[in-house]
């Protein structure tokens, strides 16, 4: 078969186009640092890469949820610890009142005032917020807990709102939820056991009995307070176990996310040393092809003039 100049030109253009396309692909890999820049680069690898990206995104969402939950729970634990310290001071003052048989009326009233201030501090702690939400409000987190708690014997609180005793649960993995809350209802309105007053009633009884000098009443109040204090300590301990669980889940998810990201990078990431070498080779081939084409395919009119 006779090879014509036109056939040589077409073959040259075809080859030079392929080399140019290869250079463009290599240049795109250099600029993005990725081997997968469009679906046609490697459909199977692109599909796997998209699946990994979806998993990374889901894991990132769970990590964000856990971080928010841990902030809430750590703030709650700090507030509970403050309550426990204040309750221990009230406990100490009640013991002092019981052991001071010859206390003057002024001293007795001073002790009653001191205990009253401590109790108001406990309720102030119950009103702590994270952002615009009351951390002890349960699902009624927009309502200030002290508004529906009886803070003194003469107080007239509002009705307990719907959801105030309901927990807030955060999903930390597929099908796994953890409560992040301790509610004011758990602390103040739930009796530790049958026959024992809840903390709200105990604190009100202490205030009334201290003011009245009711020693036998104070003894019962002290017994109730001991049980109430143990209950609050147990609530804080239970919260601590949930904090530990979320922290463990957070560490595991962070490691899993790192593994996914590394795997995703291995699929889509370009070997820059290899890409640079390939680009240099492509440039050399492209330049040589252009030079050869200039010599073969672009003859001058001088070639067709007679020798005479």
Automatic annotation (TrEMBL):
Coiled coil: none
Species, as recorded: Alicyclobacillus hesperidum
All copies of domain Flagellin C-terminal, residue ranges: 227-305
Function field: Flagellin is the subunit protein which polymerizes to form the filaments of bacterial flagella.
GO molecular function: structural molecule activity
Name the UniProt record assigns to this protein: Flagellin
GO cellular component, one term: extracellular region
Subcellular location: Secreted; Bacterial flagellum
Main location: secreted
Family from the record: Belongs to the bacterial flagellin family.
Keyword Lipid biosynthesis: no
Domain Flagellin N-terminal: 7-134
UniProt KW keywords: Bacterial flagellum, Cell projection, Cilium, Flagellum, Secreted
């Amino acid at each position: 078969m006779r090879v014509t100049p036109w056939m040589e030109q077409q073959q040259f253009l075809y080859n030079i186009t392929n080399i140019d396309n290869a250079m463009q692909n290599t240049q795109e890999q250099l600029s993005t640092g990725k081997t997968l820049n469009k679906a046609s680069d490697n459909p199977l690898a692109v599909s796997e890469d998209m699946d990994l990206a979806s998993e990374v995104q889901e894991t990132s969402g769970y990590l964000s949820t856990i971080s928010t939950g841990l902030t809430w729970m750590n703030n709650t634990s700090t507030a509970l610890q403050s309550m426990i310290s204040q309750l221990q001071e009230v406990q100490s003052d009640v013991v002092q009142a019981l052991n001071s048989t010859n206390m003057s009326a002024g001293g007795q009233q001073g002790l009653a005032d001191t205990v009253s201030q401590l109790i108001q501090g406990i309720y102030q702690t119950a009103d702590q917020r994270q952002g615009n939400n009351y951390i002890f409000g349960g699902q009624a987190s927009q309502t200030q807990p002290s508004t529906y708690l009886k803070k003194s014997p003469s107080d007239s609180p509002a009705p307990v709102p719907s959801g105030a005793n309901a927990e807030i649960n955060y999903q930390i993995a597929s099908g796994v939820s953890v409560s992040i809350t301790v509610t004011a209802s758990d602390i103040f309105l739930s009796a530790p056991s049958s026959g024992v007053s809840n903390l709200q009633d105990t604190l009100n009884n202490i205030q009334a009995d201290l003011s009245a000098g009711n020693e036998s009443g104070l003894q019962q109040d002290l017994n109730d307070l001991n049980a109430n204090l143990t209950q609050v300590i147990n609530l804080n301990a239970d919260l601590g176990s949930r904090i530990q669980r979320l922290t463990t889940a957070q560490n595991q998810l962070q490691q899993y996310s790192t593994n996914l990201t590394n795997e995703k990078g291995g699929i889509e990431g370009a070997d820059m040393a290899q890409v640079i070498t390939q680009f240099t080779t492509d440039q050399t081939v492209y330049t040589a092809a252009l030079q050869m084409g200039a010599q073969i395919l672009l003859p001058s009119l001088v070639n067709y003039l007679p020798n005479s």
